[in-house]
Amino acid sequence: MNGRPISGASVGARTHRSKGVLALLGVLLLAVTACGGGGSSDQGSGSGDGKGKGSSGTADTKVSQAVVTIAPKDGAADVKTSGALKVTAAKGKLTEVAVEDTKGNAVKGSITDGGATWTPSTHLAAATKYKVHAVAKDSSGREAAEEAAFTTLTPKNTFVGIYTPEDGSKVGVGMPFSIHFTRGITHPDDVKKAITFKTEPAVDVEGHWFGNDRLDFRPENYWQAGTKVTVTFDLDGVEGRPGVYGKQARTVKFTIGRSQVSTVDAKTHKMVVRRDGKVLKTIPITTGKPGYETWNGQMVISERLKVTRMNGETVGYGGEYDIKDVPHAQRLTNSGTFIHGNYWGGGAFGNFNASHGCVGLRDVRGGYDGKVPAAWFFDNSMIGDVVVVKHSHDKTVAPDNGLNGWNMSWSDWIK
Fold first, then answer.
1. Is-contact 161 180, C-beta < 8 A?
2. What is the helix (H) or strand (E) element at residue 307, kind and residue range?
3. pTM score
4. Do residue 271 and residue 391 come from a single domain?
5. 330, 336, 341, 345: CA torsion to nearest 10
6. Are 293 and 361 found together in one domain?
7. Do 172 and 310 sit in the same domain of this protein?
8. Within 13 Å and on the Cβ side, how many CA atoms surround 191?
9. N or C end of the chain: which has fewer CB within 10 A?
10. Do 281 and 404 belong together in one domain?
11. Nearest of 384, 367, 383 to residue 375 by alpha carbon
């Protein structure tokens, strides 16, 4: 063997020095750990087994005790649009519930019963897929979540509401928003709730049912001139009667024009036209003769015709008259009352009552003269203007005979 042999003493000395260095390093490491404040709880300590346990040996994270239940179940189909959706929490409280359709439209709802229940505040749309996400916390603040998706039913029978005034129109201060439904409604509260109003300036607007297929809305008093009205139909999915569902989801806007209220006095044979509260014109008129008296009350212009045919047979008067060219006609009732031009009345205007129930204004045959009273009144009127008749020997017009709900007291209207 080449080289110098290693003595036993030399080997022992090295070994002793190595142990001394290791001991010193151990003391230094211990000191660094003590001064450094230790690692985070996520790093682990104590057992150091890498399983996320603390010094107590128990797990930092436990499964939440809260249990979230969504009805209907995930994947359900043909779900009813009302009464089927409900989210509940047991052993915890709901903190978040989000429901939306595939277009991102959210369904409003509220958490009640101290966090135990969430229910929607409105019905769901028909033939629509919805997703539900719900979160609840247990008493220790640990969260549990559930999700579900379902699809609502596709109706076999539907209804719609045919309304007036039209979208984008300008109307007089007496114009109600009137809806005729294509099917008789047996769940009136659900249908009325689905039709909402927004007005500028704000005013309370309430609905009243006439029978089971007509719903009119109006404020307590005539609209304020210039009011902007927005009506929202949310009828899609509303069960109007058993097995019959609405299918309208749209918005209608209209504006109230200037205020015009005209008062017809059947005794003095005059009509006073007031625009924004000021007298605009006084016009001689004629109303219904004895046996054919004109209705009393507040009537709203619902239709305007430059010329129309008036036949007594259509209103139960047999063949008493059939005039094919009545000019400047404006409808006041469904039963056939008009305020219109009259070229055959002779000297009746301003002197005596000679009509079959209508309000007549002097006119010329063909309606070509724009200066005669009937033409002037027609040109200065609009749908929704009010015509009030007083001192006639007939009763007050029925509120549902035309757009004439103003003849019903507010207390009766909102019953």
1. yes
2. strand 303-311
3. 0.82
4. yes
5. -160
6. yes
7. no
8. 32
9. N
10. yes
11. 367
Place of tokens 């709901």: 94
Domain-ending residue, one of 256, 288, 306 = 256
Cis peptide before 155 (omega within 30 of 0): no
Count of domains for the chain: 3
- φ, ψ of residue 250 to 5 degrees: the values are -155, 170
pLDDT recorded at residue 320: 80
Q: Tokens standing for 402?
A: 């035309």
CATH number at residue 200: 2.60.40.3710
Integer distance in angstroms from the first to the last C-alpha of the chain? 122
Residue 195's pLDDT is: 98
Q: b/e map of 144-180 (b: 16 or more CB within 10 Å)?
A: bebebebbbbebeebbbbebbbeeebebbbbbbbbbe
Q: 352 in a domain, yes or no? A: yes
On whether the CB atoms of residues 219 and 197 are closer than 8 A, the answer is no
How far apart, in whole angstroms, are the C-alpha atoms of residue 233 and residue 251? 6
267 with 385, same domain? yes
Residue 304 lies in a domain: yes
Distance between CA 328 and CA 304 in Å, rounded? 8
Is the residue at 23 inside a domain?
no
Residue 333 class from Cβ within 10 Å (0-12 exposed, 13-18 middle, 19+ buried)?
A: buried
User: Would you state the structure tokens that stand for residue 16, as one six-digit string?
Assistant: 């002793």
Separation CA 159–CA 311 (nearest Å): 34
Last residue of a domain, one of 200, 230, 256: 256
Q: Are residues 223 and 335 in the same domain?
A: no
What angle is formed at CA 199 by the lines to CA 249 and CA 247, rounded to 5 degrees?
10
**Could you tell me the residue range of the domain that residue 313 belongs to?**
260-413
Closest to 129 in 3D by CA, of 81, 195, 66: 81
Q: CA-based angle 313:314:315, to the nearest 5?
A: 90
User: Per-residue confidence of the chain (415 residues) as pLDDT tens digits?
Assistant: 444 333 333 434 444 344 443 333 343 333 333 333 333 334 443 434 444 444 444 444 689 999 999 999 999 999 999 999 999 999 999 999 999 999 999 999 999 999 999 999 999 999 999 999 999 999 999 999 999 999 999 999 999 999 999 999 999 999 999 999 999 999 999 999 999 999 999 999 999 999 999 999 999 999 999 999 999 999 999 999 999 999 999 999 999 999 999 999 999 999 999 999 999 999 999 999 999 999 999 999 999 999 999 998 878 787 788 999 999 999 999 999 999 999 999 999 999 999 999 999 999 999 999 999 999 999 999 999 999 999 999 999 999 999 999 999 999 999 9
